[in-house]
Amino acid sequence: MSLEDELYQQRISRIAEIEALGFEPYGHRFDFTHTIPQILAEYTAKTAAELEQRVVVKVAGRISTIRRMGKAGFAHLLQNGERLQIYIRKDAVGEKDFALYEKLDLGDIIGVEGYLFRTRTGELSVHAERLYFLAKTLFSMPEKWHGLEDVEIRYRQRYLDLIANPEVRNVFVTRAKIVSSMRRQLEAHGFLEVETPMLQPVYGGAAARPFRTHHNTLDIGLYLRIAPELYLKRLVVGGLERVYEINRNFRNEGISTRHNPEFTMLEFYQAYTDYLGMMDLSEELLRQAAIDATGSAVVEYQGEKIDFGNFRRVSMRDAVGDPSLKGKALVDEFERNIESTLIQPTIVFDYPIEVSPLSKNKPGDPDFVERFEIYVAGMEIANAFTELNDPAEQRRRFEMQLALREKGDEEAHQMDEDYVRALSYGMPPTGGEGIGIDRVTMILTNTRSIRDVILFPLLRPVAQASGLPNHEHDS
RNA sequence: GGGCCGGUAGCUCAGACGGUAGAGCAUUUGCCUUUUAAGCAAAGGGUCGCGGGUUCGAGUCCCGCCCGGCUCACCA
User: Fold this and answer.
1) Stated pTM of the model
2) pLDDT tens digits, residue range A304-313?
3) Whether pLDDT at A327 is above 60
4) What is the ipTM of this complex?
5) Would the pLDDT of A31 be above 90?
């Protein structure tokens, strides 16, 4: 028998032993008096003498360490990323509960009732008077010193990563703070949160290859959206003058430390402003999100201090510094040599018209449009423009894209007749922007890989895990 | 897709030159009523990612494949 089977069988048989003692191996509701973080926050400052007026508590958590010493012992319970020590002695908990204690495994989830005290070495602990059994673990937990290091297991079994590595938990707590900060701020500015289709008959709003799927009852092909943009602007036409959506986009392209096939985008649209208005708003949003997520507008990323309170604004032409370059060549040069050098928050504005089919022309400068992107730590984190609201011009732009598609550009935009029709009813002048939530989270949590800010990043399934056949020519 | 690196016990890792697979933690048994990487004593535990090849002999060398990481290309 392999060790893994042996450990498993051991724990299966322990379930029967726990039942024989009169406990359920998988408990029901447990009414705790405090969470472990609450106890630590409330009582860490109390001295041993102050705790002599007994504070009785009921707490629950997962056993993360255990030290048995004959007729007594210590353990640490882990809850919400924090640990509290418990002290169990036979004469305090009684025969039955002590027999349970002797059968506990690392990773089991238990409840403890008892009073707070400080040990000889001063650690705040619960002096147990009663134990409750809440859930059995059948597998052994990652090692206590090094945690879980195997990157593949960390991503495939994220729950183990979250148990073993407290800093991972913090990344996702910070991510949630960023999202809620954005929501709070946009709502304060009068934006309405909406949801638009993920399944789209025509995909648009970005240059990317899509995922394809099929609806059985309608018997039609559909695309997973690459962006919500064209739907959000239909809503602006409809009079929802400030709208935003925070949701997933899907792009059928490469995977890297900065790219996951599904990723989270914040898009927002504001009627009667332009890209300059979007610049001001995005500086404010990002600065405040940094403060709400980390406590400061200045954050450290990979050894660099990045100041979200101070954005530089530079035109793409000035950033590249070569007046002879135009169109795609200008963008190529920018992406090749300039982008990675933009560490501090930088707004790069005025893009060539060729690469910007949804942006409004720059008055007096027919080769350029009113568009900007924001770069931080060498990464693009936002893309914004004054929205093109002239339906005839929009149709010409789509036609330019179709010409590119004819020449084999798989990422060129599709014609969207329904969108042109919507614009034909009149869309007010509008500024719009998309902010990549995953990348902002990377910077604000000081992580190098996008997989570390996505709970379940896409990995190749192991063995039989995929339920679908692979289609060789499905692109 | 290309290049580089990795996959050895449940976890974290060692294994020159090819010569009977190791450590710590975890597990099991015994002792231990304020320990905290608890301690002491003993024990069990491995298709060395998978498949071929070379060899008297392969964790180690060669070939192919699988999975992952970094990186380049594409992209946000």
Assistant:
1) 0.94
2) 999 999 999 9
3) yes
4) 0.92
5) yes
Q: pLDDT, tens digit, for every residue of A196-244?
A: 999 999 999 999 999 999 999 999 999 999 999 999 999 999 999 999 9
Q: Which nucleotide is nearest to A451 (CA to C1')?
A: B69
CA dist A154 and A92 (Å) reads 40
List all nucleotides in chain B with at least one atom under 7 A from a protein Cβ.
1, 9-13, 24-28, 31-39, 44-47, 66-76
Contacts of A125 by beta carbon, 8 Å cutoff, 6+ apart:
A74, A84, A85, A86, A87, A116, A117, A118, A119
Residue A353 Cβ < 7 Å to strand B: no
Q: How far is the CA of A4 from the C1' of B48 (A)?
A: 16
State which residues between 273 and 332 of chain A bring their CB within 7 Å of strand B: none
Distance of CA A306 to the CA centre of its chain: 20
- In Å, what is the separation between the CA of A62 and the C1' of B29? 26
Q: What amino acid occupies position A248?
A: R
Measured in Å, how far apart are chain A's first and last C-alpha atoms? 46
Q: Which residues pair with A313 in a beta bridge?
A: A347
